[in-house]
Amino acid sequence: MARKHRGIAADGGSDIVAQVVAQGDRLGSRMALVRHKIAVMSGKGGVGKSSITANLAAVLASQGYQVGILDADINGPAIAKMLGVRAQNLSLSENAILPALGPRSIKVMSMDLLLPGDKTPVIWEAPTQQNSFVWRGTIEASALREFLADTAWGELDFLLVDLPPGTYTFPTLEQLVPDLVGIIVTIPSEVSHLVVKRFISLAQELGTLLAGLVENMAGYTCPHCGKVGELFSAAGDGERMVAEMGISYLGSIPFDARLSASADWGIPFALEHGGSPAGQALAHVAAKVKEFVGESRR
Amino acid sequence: MKLSCGNCAQAMQLVKATDLADGSMSIIFGCASCGNRVSLLTNPGETQLVRALDVQIGGRTVPPEPMGLVRSALARQRDDAFVSQSDVPQPKEGVIWTEDALRRLENVPAFVRDMARKSIERYAMEKGCHQITPEVMDLARKATGG
């Protein structure tokens, strides 16, 4: 008589379930030392998630918080460049990897720190790359788990996770880190809003706590006359969007060409130009995020 | 996945798992009751999928190493991406100069080089920056009016 799957107690010797449980335990122990886990995400590419992540981290670290950043963009990592840590080695200890140290001692883990050159893509060892779509997502999810669980983050006040565009990585992260808080980033364009609204809906369906929405590249201050002009067609629509989606508005960040230059130089804009309109806007967003997570000691 | 013996419906036990050269895997299960044996053959894609889950067929005999999957499965990686703890300069105690930055520092006239180095390091530390690149040298120079 045929037996059902549940009728057999174990898997014959591999104990896959125990191996997966052990992975979860390892991750849980590491994350227990992190007070606030914040995902910076959008669904839309090119809206400045990495820039906002790096600068929020810099603002928080400047206020004396212990901050780490995980670059969850496995295939397009940018955080190590933005924080000027690309040349650093990762130090191997018995049970963890010491992360790179960026400005204000921000701890950084990124796939970029492992890749040998600027042009090197992320390729995984496999008997054949044919049909790699079958397993690529799985191995990237495992890599993300290892980055979270095997990095010696230590005790952190904030771990910021910079998510790639699209919706693929977010559900994985959400399962790995159940007490995640999300910050949504958009730009004031209808195209961006269309994509971002779908992303917000996904996050809401998964039950993720959303701190709110940041509208990036919201206006441009002329360096000559000081007049503020619009960069995109849907200026001001961000506040309408948050009302429609039932989330908070964290603020808008005006465009400043020095944001890009600072990212290229590896020193966060917020440290160099904290008094500028964009620098003050970033500090305002950081304050709103702190308020959301109930962080008021600094 | 679990295997039940087709002869006597007993749970089968894993006997041996062998990686084959073509990326496939042979996993032999035996029935303790009647001695029946079956060999499960995976194709390369199935083997890779199991590997991607970071689990080991046959169970783990040694504890997993930190980032064991990434370190073993990433096809192209920096030779010096991971170094032992004692080999790493400790950024908290100072700053790290990249090779490009050090080469550029060598172009500074010798009689002011030490002063320039200290000035750049002071600037970097003020900014909370632990790594000096040519770009940071530019910023330091600009900031100090050099």
Topology:
The complex is a heterodimer of chains A (298) and B (146).
Chain A (H helix, E strand, L loop, with lengths): L15 H16 L2 E8 L7 H14 L4 E5 L7 H4 L7 E3 L4 E2 L1 E2 L5 E3 L23 H18 L5 E7 L6 H8 L3 E7 L3 H16 L3 E13 L6 E2 L7 H9 L3 E7 L1 H9 L3 H4 L4 H17 L5
Parallel strand pairs in A: 1-7, 1-8, 2-6, 2-7, 8-9, 9-11
Antiparallel strand pairs in A: 3-4, 5-6, 9-10
Chain B lengths: L12 E7 L5 E6 L6 E6 L1 H9 L15 H6 L8 E3 L11 E2 L1 H8 L3 H17 L4 E2 L1 H10 L3
Parallel strand pairs in B: 5-6
Antiparallel strand pairs in B: 1-2, 2-3
Helix pairs in contact in B: 4-5
Put the structure in a nutshell.
Chain A is of the alpha/beta class and 298 residues long.
Describe this structure as you would to a colleague.
The complex is a heterodimer of chains A (298) and B (146). Chain A has 298 residues and is of the alpha/beta class. Chain A has a single domain (15-293), classed as Rossmann fold (3-Layer(aba) Sandwich). Helices cover 39% and strands 20% of the residues of chain A. In chain A, a hairpin with a 5-residue loop joins strand 5 and strand 6 (107-109). Chain A is globular, with a radius of gyration of 20 Å. The mean pLDDT of chain A is 92. Chain B folds into two domains: 13-73, no CATH class; 86-143, Helicase, Ruva Protein, domain 3 (Orthogonal Bundle). Chain B has five helices and six strands. Chain B has helices spanning 44-52, 68-73, 99-106, 110-126, 134-143; strands at residues 13-19, 25-30, 37-42, 82-84, 96-97, 131-132. In chain B, a hairpin with a 6-residue loop joins strand 2 and strand 3 (37-42). Classes of the chains: A alpha/beta (298), B alpha+beta (146). The interface between A and B is large, with 71 and 66 residues.
